[in-house]
Input
Amino acid sequence: MLWKLKELIPIEDICAYADDILILCNNLETLEKCMETIEKWSEENNMKINKSKSAIMEFIHRQKRKRNLVVGQKFKDYPIVDQYKYLGTWLNSKLTHETHLRQVINKTYTIRRKLSPMIYSISLEMRKNLWQIFIMPLYEFILPIYHQEQATTKRNKMELALRNSFKSFTGLKKGMQTKLIQDLMDYDLNERSKYLYDISQKRWKTRARKEIQNVGNEVGNIKSSQENPQNLCKYMPKSMIKYLNMLTSLCPKCKDKHRCSPEHLLKYHKIKIMTAYDVSEDILKYQKARKSKKMKLTRADILNYVNNLIQPNLDKLKEVLNSK
Ligand SMILES: [Zn+2]
Output
């Protein structure tokens, strides 16, 4: 069948995966011919096409409204749609990430609700792990489209949705600075989408050249080339979440609306408490010191150390918040 289709459209406009086939055509005439080819082949090979599960989608320019096909109607018994899920990705006729994002947000909500009892009892580190396992892959699907998106509002919408999903999984408060959330999340849409886009392009070109695919084995790696020195959530207990949330409270000592951040408390009230970055650095130092002394260090040792590190800061902060 592919051989016959190739006579009608270029090979790179045919995507076939198992019994799933997607073809790109420039006009209705070609589309009709391709459909005839597919139908004829299916009949000869005793394969029945499920027309109601198939669909035709017209890609149109963002600013244009005029369509050749009417959504909701049928073309040769195939429904005409303006959005379609193909191999896990929701595509729409304007090729924006919005349709997929809407699905992702709903899915995130459902997953988060199901994991609720578990999330409540685990550390910040484990919560982030769950988020990486369940939520990150949902976003990965649309990153190539996001990468090409020019509209800032659309880009911001996706970045916001991603941060919100992270907050909802970790229990971190809404008022937390974007920079800190970003660092805790350690997943940059810009960087990651550029990386995936480059790989997709390479694959596309390879495919067009009909070569054996050997690029993109590294796609599975969550991290891109620039790796942060330390995962900020590493070894962070549940108490860290409480601590960070308390830091977003308004300072009771000031009349103006200032948050009780370590920077603020030091500058205006000469109170010194640790930031998440300080704690993370301290953990690294502790590990190094132990290692240099060739002392055995278990995960439980580190967790214990971190808890003892955070507690006095938490107590100090509580005192500030309870004072007037
Ligand atoms: Zn203050």
Notes: The longest helix spans residues 98-121. The radius of gyration is 26 Å. The beta strands are 14-17, 20-23, 56-57, 74-75, 78-81, 83-86, 89-92. The chain has 13 helices and seven strands.
